[in-house]
Structure formats: structure tokens, C-alpha cells
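Lab manual, section 2.4: Encoding a predicted structure.

Procedure: take the sequence of the chain (727 residues), apply the prediction step described in section 2.3, and record the output as C-alpha cells. A sample record is shown.
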Amino acid sequence: NYESCKVLEYLTKLTNLVGTSNADFPSGDPGMYQLDVTLRRGQNLAARDRGGTSDPYVKFKLGGKEVFRSKTIHKNLNPVWEEKACILIDNPREPLYIKVFDYDFGLQDDFIGSAFLDLTSLELNRQTDVTLSLKDPRYPDHDLGSILLSVLLAPREEQREVTMLMRKSWKRSSKVTFSMWSSACVFISLKFQTQSLRLSDLHRKSQLWRGIVSVTLIEGRELKAMDANGLSDPYVKFRLGHQKYKSKIVPKTLNPQWREQFDFHLYEERGGIIDITVWDKDVGKKDDFIGRCQVDLSTLSREQTHKLEMPLEEGEGYLVLLVALTASAAVTISDLSVNSLEDQKEREEILKRYSPMMMFHDMKDVGFLQVKVIRAEALMAADVTGKSDPFCVVELNNDRLLTHTVYKNLNPEWNKIFTFNIKDIHSVLEVTVYDEDRDRSADFLGKVAIPLLSIQNGEQKAYVLKNKQLTGPTKGVIYLEIDVIFNAVKASIRTLMPKEQKYIEEEDRLSKQLLLRNFIRMKRCIMVLINAACYISSCFDWDSPPRSLAAFLLFLFAVWNFELYMIPLALLLLLAWNYFLIVSGKDNRQHDTVVEDMLEDEEEEDDRDDKESEKKGFMTRLYAIQEVCVTVQNILDEVASFGERIKNTFNWTVPFLSWLAIVALSVFTIILYFIPLRYIVLVWGINKFTKKLRSPYAIDNNELLDFLSRVPSDVQVVCILFKVSLW
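Recorded output:
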């Protein structure tokens, strides 16, 4: 009958999909095909480094999204990768975009060339070897080498099961009723919906990290001497995917002791490879390469610490590492309909998890953060059409999640919920809006930075987007609703532990305005000490007899009755006095307009630098001078920040930290009052002398410096708008 003929026609078309012909590709069914690509090797790639070589790696992009990235092959123009990738294809008419880069640590990677693979030219279910010539649109005549691939395009296995099932059903019966036709359609629809959901889950999982890789760099042994004095100044660079770290420099040694820890996020369930290179620091010229090694994470068991002695390739010596893989489910992303805190049962579980009763349950996480990214309004137009393709990046320390892209819209609505586990309550939540660009990196539209301690739970607020340096507003606002739940005791203990280090994002650059700003900040801190010394000197000189007499009597009383506990007691009184001034409304602190003016000048200079960056600057020929200036600039910044952090502790800039200082000073006052100093010094000395014996691989830290690292400097106060909210 007619219905039977239609079913036969439909099934015939469907079964042809598993054949070898590619004449007719469906254009819209999601998850219809699977592309298996083997990246074989490169041939005669273009040299991008000074030594006439390159450090090439390859990216695959589909629909403007990166779907694969290869490992880096160092110093080779004919690299051999032999890496496999499995890619789900939504639309086989969309080509696979292949880009090759030269890796430069800490700098922007150099573009080598790109090519397109036309998927419609491939035969289904047949492996094909493909050679693609690399091109650069700016220099179309240049020979940039080629990339060799093996590709196999095939329908998904679920689709084959549907087809084979229907073939067998057709052979068993020559009569097909309309109800069978309906059942077949429903079955096919369910299969394709499952594929579509799996595809969306796969794209979503690519944003989330599957675990944490903790790497402790212990020491180096018998490294190669690179300097004329028979020694080296070694440091180590780590890279796992996009994540980069750099160790401190240990001067004049072949057996350096680092004892530094770095945490990487593991995005791939099968593991990954950590590239490790060792360098000798040289002032005024390019650093010398000492050696390299790799750690294959897929060979290491989880939830266990591995001590590795890695011999250096292309060099001499060993590196001693401790590597631990920890599974984690710390971050999630969902729609607004899935709200953990609105579900009373889930909210109670979260509150219980971070209650004082669970204080010592898990010291890694001190709290829970939920961020609702609702919408943005009046964004900057980044396209020639006067529109943008905005998406949002939410970052907390090294946790990074993305929303979907809203195309051709200056008032996008995302309506997404992000959740994070908080490891440091003093962290700053960063929300950045970008414009998606298929052919190049995303364009920056705006950014906000919100300290977790300044968040008011459950309040939907509009935040004005700022520039990259957070020194001034840009166009547009973003609407967020944020909730923070944390354990104050665990957060206080975590404050005295080393601060989590962020990934290395960009190299320090020389800035005249930044150098001047740090010099002025340093001068202001020194002037405070000079003015205090002048005041004391004036008391000695009896410039004001009443004041000098009062100072003299106070000096006699203090020296005659001095006890050590009076030092923290005096600091405690200073904190209490400033607190009283703030509560009573008598605080006469003025807004720091000097720092704001300097930041505005620096922003203008950044704009000029961006315009001139396309031109060749003379700074490349003055590399040594630049490095020295950058070092001086950073030293000034560190010293000025240290003094400002001490001042801001007593000024109640961050009330949580000031309260914590009050508790600590009170405890110290009581201890010093009741316990003789000799016993305290004895306990401290025994602890210091036996620390390495009790824990050989312990990482040295100073609790006071770790505490001060959480206190914002004056620049951070102005940029991130820390607000005093007294409890």
C-alpha cells in the first residue's frame, strides 16, 4: 500500500547513509557523524625562532570552537605527532579548520600557517591520507610547509544500530503498518535526541576540569653548568595545555632547592602530558636552555602521591618532583532552572557542609560560591555590522567557565548559573565579556572584579564593565546575582597558608607610567618613616617643651614598666581606635586621588602602546635595559605594596582581616603575658630546627607574609573598589 511504499523509501534513504557514497550529506542532524583524525607529522614548516627552528603544535577548530590541540614538538621543522582525535560532526558541510603555531613560553605564540579540510570530499567509512599545504592569508605566496593527516568519516554507531534493526524487521515481514512507521519514527527521534544531548554534554564537559594535578618541585641534581663560573642560575617552566607556571630562580648552583608547589587543572579524563623545561637565567641576553622532560599523567594512579626522579633530555641532571592526581567535582554550570540554593534540601546540605561542626572535614574548600550570569546591556559593538557576538567568562582564581555565545546582539541574555568551591575567601571573582571571532582571538568588551568578602548574598546587581586594567569604565553593564557561603574558622586558618598562584598569563613589560607610579608609592611609604623620625627628633630637641616633657615622662614610664606583651597590645589598641573612628563617623580618610590620577595616565599610555605595538619599536634592541628596568619596577611595587598592606590592615579596609588581626593579637598578648619569653623562643626554635626532619618536603612559608598577601594595596583598593562594610 501507499504507507508501505513511503516507509520503504524512507528506510532506503536512511540505510544509504552507512554505505560508501557521499553524494548527499544531511545538513542539519546533530551528532550524525564521527570524524577520526590522526595527526601524523609536519613537513618543512616555517621557522619562527631565532635559531632557525620552531616549537610547533596544531589546533583543530570546528564552527569557530577549538576541538583539539596537539602536544608541542620542540625545535623541529619536521615534527612527528602521531596523535589521534575523535570529533563529533554536527554539519559535515562545515570544514575543519587547522592552524599551526610556534610555541613561545610567556609570550604570544607565533602563527605558522593554516589550512581547511573539506569533509564533503571524504568517502564515508574509508580511511584517507590527506596532505594539506599551510597558508597565511597575509602572505599567500609563502611556502609554510604542510601537514599530513589520516582521516575517517563515519556515521555514529547508534545510527547504524537503528538502520540494521530496521533492515532485519523489514526482512521478517513484508507488511508494514502505519503504526510500525510511527514507532520507527519515534525510535529514530529518540536516538537522535540522545545523540544531541550527548553532544551538548561533551561540549559542556570540555569547559569543566576533571581533577587537580598537584606538582611539587623539590630539587634539581647535577644540572649542566651554563655560566663561565662553572655554575648556573636555574629555573623551571611547566606547561599543561594552556596552563603555565614558572618557578623561582635559584642563583649560582647546580643542585638547586626549590620546594615550590603548582596546581594544574586536568580537563581530559584520559590524562595529559606536562612539559617541563629547565633554563639558566642570563641578564642582558636570551636565557640558556639546560634540558627538558615530560610527565605522562595517564601512567599515574589517582589519589596517590608519586615521587619522580626525571632525567633531563637534551641536557644533564635530574629533577625531583612530587606529583599527585586528585579527582574533583568542584565546578558546575547549569541553566537558571537548576538552582542549588533555591532547593531547600540542597541549601541545608551546603550550609551543613560549611558549618563550624565540619571545620576539619576538608581544609581544601572553605566555602561555596554560586554566580548567576543573567544578562548584559548596551555592550560595545565589535563587528562592522554594529553588533557583537558576546559570551561571558567567569573566573575564580584558576577555575574558569564560559557561557554560550549570543550572536548579533548588544543586549545578550545568558541566564546561566555557575558554582565553585572556594579555596580562599579573599579571592576575587572576575567576570569578563568577550566578542567571539571565528578567524582570530576573541575581542575584549569589558570586565568586572568582585572580592568575595564584599558580596551581598541574593542581591541582583548591575555592574559597570571596566577596561582590562580595571582603571576606568568601558561601554555596557552586566547583571549578576551572587551567593557566598563559607566557614569563617576554616577561612581564617586558610589565610595563614600560602596563597594560590595564578597561571602565568603574560610577561612583565616596561612602562614609564608604571615605573613612576611605583616610585611615588615607595616615596610615600618612606616619607611616613621620615616624618615619624623627625617627630621623635623634635621631641629630643625640645622644639615644643610641653610635648617633649610629655614624651619624656611617657618614655620613663614605658621603659620602667615594659613587658613584651605590650607590643601586640599597642597594635591592638591602634586597631580598636581606628574601628571606633569608623563606627562613630569620625573617619577622616580621604579618597586616594593621587593613585587614581596615576592609573588614568597609565591607561592612556596603554592605549598608545597598543597602537604602536604593530610598529617595530627600539625596545627590542634594548632588551638588557628593559629587563633591568622591569626588575626595578617590580621591586618598587613589592616594597610599596608591603607598606600599604600593613597600613590597610589597621585602616579596616577589609574588615574580615582586621577582625582576624584582632583575634591573633589578642591571643599573642595573652600568651606573652602568661608565658615567659624564653619558653616561647624555645618552642619556636625547636619547631624551626625539626621542621625539615619531620616533613622533608615541606614548603617553607611565613604566616605573617601569607596574611599580608590577602590585604589589598592602595592600587587594588582603587581598582577593585574594596568597600568597608563593618559587621
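Check your result against the sample. The first strand starts at residue 33 and ends at 43.
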